[in-house]
Amino acid sequence: MPSFTTQVPNLQQVGPVVEVRIAVGTALEEIERNAGREIPTPAAAVAMIDTGATGTVLREDIPQQLGLNPVGVALISTPSSANVQCYRYAVRLLFPNRVVVETLAIAAPLQGQHIQCLIGRDVLKHGVFVYTGYIDQFTLSF
Amino acid sequence: MVAVLEKELETYECKRAELVGKAKDKFALVKDTEIVDIFDSELDAIRAGYERFGNVPFLVKQIVEIETPESFTSNLMGI
């Protein structure tokens, strides 16, 4: 079963964060490759696993870095707003240990210094998330 | 906030009742003022969109009567 385990000093304060890379979705990559066009280099991002998020979120500049165009619109609600429309993008999330998940992510401003991606329940639905707080460690398996 | 897909959203909204009647819960591929096709899976619809139009904006929308918002409890969202 593909999985990765991450140790985060002071996990309670920092949260379950992991360095990931965001790549264009498989369908677009195949089409671009077959057409002889260059595939954008995956974008590096610090991601937090967020069980309070229905879906995965990317900071708005990441789809731009990848040259992606939206393939949909999601209606979202947050603590401070309701029924806001956001663009959706087809991407692959490249986790440590070559764990790869294909998903549709929404783009949002993602305020804050260190997080560029929230990993939501669209990803977690495929796997097992083990949060071992007393040793500042978590594991995600698929 | 989603101006790039405004025309596609209008197209979908205009035809939503008709689509719900014939393809509820499936996925519509919409480009400009046309419902291009209907698919069983969202990823199939997206692949078809890329194959037909390339890496340009298009709309894939699940056909539902009432859309349920996705919820986010994080205050990091910035929205």
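qc> The helical segments of chain B are 6-23, 42-53.
qc> done
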